[in-house]
Design goal:
The chain has 2 helices and 2 strands. It is an alpha+beta fold. The protein has a two-stranded antiparallel ribbon. The longest helix has 10 residues.
């Protein structure tokens, strides 16, 4: 497995995803994300009605979404069938409970 460089922006993230880090490389890729919410601020949407799921890229290999939650909002317990899912928090914190 090759070393993944620090990922400084969304364009670079998409390029690395497109090259296919593979299942084992996805965790390493997430650790290399080195940008904050300012990189995606123009894409963010907020609603007091619930979290917002903004599509960034979707193709036959993967789907990448920007998820925007207000403090205290939640999503229902769910699964993604046979798909894998990863999360990278750019600002704030994620609390998972069952």
């Amino acid at each position: 497995m090759s070393t993944i460089p620090k990922i400084k922006n969304l364009k670079q993230l998409l390029k690395i995803i497109d090259t296919g880090p593979g299942y084992d490389g996805t965790g390493q890729m997430l650790l290399q994300i080195d940008f904050g919410p300012e990189e995606v601020k123009d894409l963010c949407r907020w609603s007091d009605q619930g979290y917002q799921k903004i599509p960034i890229e979707k193709n036959a290999q993967y789907a990448l979404y920007l998820m925007c939650w207000e403090a205290g909002q939640a999503s229902p317990i769910h699964d993604h069938a046979s798909a894998q899912g990863w999360i990278c928090v750019l600002e704030g914190e994620l609390k998972e409970s069952l």
